[in-house]
Amino acid sequence: MRQNRQQSTFIILSALIVVVMGFFFKYYTGPAHLWFNNYGAAVFYEIFWCLFAFWFVRSQRAVTQISIWVFIVTCILEFLQLWHPPLLEDIRATLIGKWLLGTTFAWWDFPHYLLGCALGWLWLKQLQGISNAKKSKSET
User: Fold this and answer.
1) What is the pLDDT of residues 21-46, one digit of tens each?
2) Alpha-helical runs (H) found in the chain
3) At 59, is the secondary structure helix, strand, or coil?
4) Residue 66: which of 25, 132, 112, 116 has the closest Cα?
């Protein structure tokens, strides 16, 4: 139980770091701001969703599946940006809707989604390793 609590703490801290960095990139105004705003923030978006899913499903096997599913779902969301029914437009008109669903389709988002999911996978492996290291220590 203690390992699970410690892992939960690391997940929360990780999510906070990722959210802060994602917003920093999204609203950065310095050199190369267009890349940071449009694509760099997408990397943190993917990592966040990997962490979010890992909060609920923490098995070793789930780490890879989470990264794959986050990539698939965000790619579907990207393609949904080509579709403009009134309901989706109403959601996208809100700030949270814009953050979660996006507003403009861009092919260049896909490699950044892939990078974010790969980094998310590495991040989850590290979090899983923390839990496994604590378990093996307590078993000896």
Assistant:
1) 999 999 999 999 999 999 999 999 99
2) 2-26, 33-35, 41-56, 60-80, 86-92, 95-101, 109-139
3) coil
4) 116
